Amino acid sequence: MVEKQKIQEWQEEIRAIGASNPLRNFEINTFGQIDLERSHPGGYSQFITGGQTLLSNLVRDPLAFSRALSAARRIKAKSQSISQQYGIETLHLIGGLANFEGDGFDLNIPILLWPVSIIRKTDDYELSLDGPPTVNPTLISSLEQCYGIKLNPAELLARQNESSDLVPVTVLNYLANLAGSTANLDLSRVLVILNCTTAVEEMLADFQTPFNALVEKLIGEPGQGLEDIEIPQLTPVVDADATQSRIIARAKTGASFAVETLPGCGYIQTVVNVISTLVQDGKRVLVVAPRKQTLNELADRFSSIGLAGLATRSDATWVDVVSAISRNEKASASTLEPLRIKRVAAEAQLDSYFEALNSTDPVLGVSVARILRELSKLSAISKPALTNARIPQEMLLMHTDRSAGLALLQQAHDLGEFRFGPQDSAWYQAVFQSQAELEKVIEVAKTLHEQSFPSLSQSLSEFTARVNFNPAESVQDWKKYLALLMGVRDTLDRFVPDVFERALTELIAATAPRKGEKRNQMSGSNRRRLKKLAREYLRPGMHVGDMHSALIAIQNQRELWQSFSSGLNSPQVPQGINEAFSEFQKFQADLDLVQAHLDPESAQSPLVDLSLNDLSQALKSMAVDTQVLENYQARAEVFSKIRELGLAALARDLGRLHVTKDQIALEFDQAWWQSALESVVSRNAAILGFTSGQISNLEQSFRDSSAAEISAGASVLAAQNSQLWKQSLAANPTQAQSLKELLKTRIASFPLMVEAAPDIWPVIAPVVLVAPLEVPKLLASAQQFDCVLVLDAAGIAVAEGIPALKRANQLIAFGDEAIAAPVGFDIEPRPIPIIGSEPEQSIFSKVAEVFGVETLRRSYRSTGTALGQFINREFYQNRIQFLPTATEYLGVRAFNLEVLTQNNRAATTIEGATESLDAELNLVLDQIISHATNNPELSLLVVSASSVHAERIRSAVASRLQARSDLAVFFDGHGSERFEVVAIAELAHRIADRVIFSLGFGKTSHGSVPSAFGQLSQEHGKRYLANLLVSARRQITMISCIEPEEVPADRLENGALLLKEMMLAAKIEAKPVVKDADPMLSDLSIRLRKLGARVDDTFSKDLPLVASFGNKTAVIEPDWFIPGQNRVEKFCIRPGLLTAMGWLYIRVYSFELFSDPQAVATRIAEQLGMQVTKRPLPLFETNEQAFEDSNLAWGDSADSNDSRLRQDKPPHWG
Q1: Long-range contacts of range 969-974, CB-CB < 8 Å, 24 or more positions apart?
Q2: N or C, which end of the chain is more exposed by having fewer CB within 10 Å?
Q3: DSSP letters for 759-774
Q4: What SS3 state is found at 856?
């Protein structure tokens, strides 16, 4: 139950609307009224008959016309301002007055009202009556309240219609007779054009109807804020980020709440999605907003997505209804399911990659992405780790804490383990059971080096030379040679030397076993002959048991001899072969002994397989380089422990690298992370199935399917409404005919539509757009809605929104308290405006307090925001999430300050002399004309802190246009962003491509700076300044007679306090952002710079890496840094926004950047327009360099760091 006191408070706020009420207390105001009572008869007769009449024909006295012309200009400006900002029409002609003061009532009430139109015609205005007369509702209610008299408006209007005069005597007589002797009314005739509204009386009347549960909740106790909510499957009709999706989900549940709409953060977009979702659920929505521009933007947005007429405006009802009917008739059946399936499939594929990249390995507790970053970090160190060693998979988990292994490795280093590597000594990692065994083997090695090897080498060289063998290359060759010579010796002991000269093929066949194939092909006689011949080769007295095998051996010996020999000599046995063979056997035994103690894990060939030169070096190393075996036992014990920890391969590699003690930890980390990568990938090989091209295609597929689904959402909603429309027509044929007849008149309003088709109207207009002050007049209390959306709610008092709230069950309020407040307005132009009492609270703040608030924080302005950091800091506590534009990176400033250094002082010392100096006025005028001439495609708004200066600018522009008619198209164009000059206090929710802010104040005649700057120094000056700054879409140009350093910092107040800092912002250079460097991106930066690109990773905390070449600028984002709360934000909204802001959006992928960074750099360079792979090559190659092409000729040193860069190249880069 709403308390009576609260209702009275609301009623007082309603009565305060307009500051004064000419329909209740009419007063003569020549400043803002046009008196037609003494107008010229010729013009008057034309006017009262409905004709369009020039003001100069109504008021012909020059002095009176001048006053009337000024009043008409003010009335017209006031009417337009109130219409645009509050949604009500105030241009009226009042006729007749009823004064109640004779009975003690402070009432002077006009009797009749006519809507009037006033149109500017060069230096004149055209006036006409814009509709039939109505009786002032205040007169009706006042007569009943004061005298108990019930006035019948129809009877009164019938009296008025009896005469051609606008206020005939019969009207006054009727009222006098109706009042009779009970009232002492003073009735008089008057005809005045002025600004007034009946909205106050209509609002007060609406308060007499009962309040609903929503209003009772609103005046209840503050709530606990908003609870978390699960976001269901939604069907948005335009893009929605995570916050917007959450708002839609809350609206869908029927919850009431507030939405704080920070500038440029997708306000209208969110409202469109909320409304479409509610309509999809079969709900009816009432949208109230004081500003026509907001409602028009909303209607236009629906039209742009194929839902024209879904929201019906009060001032464009006929157009919107016709559009809705056309849409309903043309809509065809549509379904989202196939598109949704396609999008879900794209999501699944995309998720599979990022899950493989970012999911934590269950064994090691790290992800692939983290491993790649850690490896890149190690490689980016000035002295990077170089090891290629791996740690066994089963040992990796043990070394997640590497302290124990590191201690052992450092202990091994202290013992000298890493002073030598396998390339330094043959004794590296030799194995001995005792010190005695070590010494024994060393002695053997020394004997081999000093005696055995030289002696054997010499004797065998002589043997090979004597028999014309090719020089031996290894011990294995010696072994083969000696085996052959020993075999030849055995053969010659049994056979005559001629056996090596005779072809033995037939003899071998003849002596073959009985079942041999060759034997079977030979006749018996021939076989006997050949066997006899074979025995003839035996030495006298010799016998061979197996002649066949002996002949085969001889054949093989001859073939080997021919292959070993460099001459044509037959096999022979040199003298001393037996001694040499014995010496070789002793040498081989010693060599095998040494080999048995050498490194069992060595990748080098065994000693017997080494070339003789290498063997000689190895033996020398073993004989001489025995330092590697110092304190062998202690090192062997430590290495045994190292081997148990699985670090043997790493320790061996550390020896190869000769690492210093402080480098061991880095090498250990490198080995662990490299091994971890192989281990993780072995358990989840899915990551290897993606190439950069495939991932890019997956992202594009998701973007395309998501965009298609959103686009189809509007079609599905249109089809749904179309079906309801056709069902409604079939169910209500009579109403359908009445609706048709009404639309034929081309005149439609909400009440007329309800009267003609009460059951069809909710179907054809599921969404209704009105101003809050229009609600009682246009929407009967019986019309109920499921939800009311209050837009620009920070500028609406609670009382003003109550009529709308009474007609709904759910409330969502959108607003921004930094730029709006329910300050009200003065209904009439006055020399000194009346400042009424302001409401304590806006409906936005009340809803936020009671129900909770969501905040739209991400700015979607593709042109950026001038003074964005200043605005964010001073007005929004750094809550807006801005992204910089490409033009900002290229150095284009969105805020320019122009200071006049001449003629910037007042000419006199009188009060107000510093306001609106001529020099500033002329510069502003030049800027306006220059913009209209050179940039007519961009809208322009001119604002001043001085209302006097703003008026002078308006007059100067009008005068200049008389000589520049070619610019009229610009000044009449741009629709809702039409050129305008306003004082800063009059600015509200305006947007223009460019804003010129002319301060409007100069220095005193003595050169001092004033301590007040007009409206900026007023109570709401800070809000005025915020409104100014968020009005610019592209650029703000400030014109001032005062340097920023001259603005006092101690004598100013309100908005003027921020003036100095704002002006100084034009001179402040952007500072590099401090953030942790990403090793992979840092390496990519170096490579891009070497290719000729300009690269910056400190430009913005929100952009990981920025690169440019020429006029192309790119944002480079890796797949491990993709800001966003969901897939749509990451892969659709962010890339789309950055592209719209002028950036070339480039994604780089972890594995591609890790494995082949140069290829990635080349690809990016070519996208930026660099001809990297198509650079011209010289026709003739030459090694000669002219001096002028040398480093010295250009003043550089002659040295090169290429070799160092090659050495520092991390091993995983190949």
Answers
A1: 969/936, 970/932, 970/936, 971/932, 973/936, 974/939
A2: N
A3: TTHHHH-SEEEE-GGG
A4: strand
Decide: helix, strand or coil at residue 1173. Answer: coil
User: What would the two tokens of residue 494 be?
Assistant: 């049994």
* Nearest one of 583, 615, 613 to 456, comparing CA atoms: 583
Strands 1144-1148 and 285-288: unpaired
Residues 1007 and 1145 in one domain: no
What pLDDT is recorded for position 1186? Answer: 53
Residues in CB range of 624: below 8 A, 6 or more apart: 449
Paired residues of 286 in beta bridges: 768, 788
- Give tens-digit pLDDT for 635-660: 888 888 988 999 988 988 898 888 99
Backbone angles phi, psi at 1181, to 5 degrees: -80, 140
Q: Are residues 1059 and 1099 in the same domain?
A: no
Q: How far is the C-alpha of 258 from the C-alpha of 923, rounded, in Å?
A: 44
Least Cα distance to 998 among 909, 910, 928, 1069 occurs for 928
Phi, psi of 87 (to 5 degrees): 75, 15
- pLDDT, position 614: 84
* Cross-strand pairs, 942: 981, 996
Cα dist from 891 to 291, 869, 887, 1070, 1111, whole Å: 36, 16, 6, 10, 12
Global confidence as pTM: 0.82
d(CA 1066, CA 557): 98
Residues 84 and 180 in one domain: yes
Residue 6: C-alpha distances to residues 140, 390, 560, 843 (Å): 26, 79, 121, 15
Closest CA to 273 of 300, 233, 234, 219: 234
| Final residue in a domain of this structure, among 601, 624, 647 | 624
Under 8 Å between Cβ of 237 and 767: no
**CA-based angle 88:89:90, to the nearest 5?**
115
Task: Please count the CA atoms within 13 angstroms of the CA of 769 that sit on its side-chain side.
Answer: 28
1181 confidence band (pLDDT: 50, 70, 90): very low
Write the CB contacts of 362 (distance below 8 Å, at least 6 apart in sequence). none
Helix (H) or strand (E) holding 1032: strand 1032-1040
pLDDT tens digits along 72-115: 999 999 999 899 999 999 999 999 999 999 999 999 999 999 99
Domain shared by 1007 and 1124, yes or no = no
Over 863-894, what HEC string results? CCCCCHHHHHHHHHCCCCECCCCHHHHCCCCC
Helix residue ranges per DSSP H, 116-212: 137-147, 153-160, 169-179, 199-206
924: CATH: 3.40.50
What number of H helices and E strands is found in the chain?
49, 23
- Give the number of other CB atoms < 10 A from CB of residue 342: 17
Domain with 1139 in it: 1079-1213
Burial of 426 (0-12, 13-18, 19+ CB in 10 A): buried
Nearest to 1052 by CA among 1026, 1016, 1027, 1024: 1016
And the tokens for 272? 């469109």
Lowest mean pLDDT among 53-62, 68-77, 252-261, 649-658: 649-658
Q: Is the model's pLDDT at 399 over the cut of 80?
A: yes
CA–CA distance, 496 with 501 (Å, rounded to integer): 10
Residue 533 has pLDDT above 70, yes or no: yes
**1056 and 1086 share a domain?**
no
Q: How many domains are contained in the chain?
A: 4
Phi-psi label, residue 289: left if phi above 0, alpha if psi -120 to 50, beta otherwise = beta
Q: In terms of domains, do 456 and 480 share one? A: yes
Q: Output the CA–CA distances (angstroms, integers) from residue 314 to 122, 288, 298, 725, in the order listed.
A: 31, 10, 13, 21
Give the phi and the psi of residue 999 in degrees, each rounded to 5: -55, -45
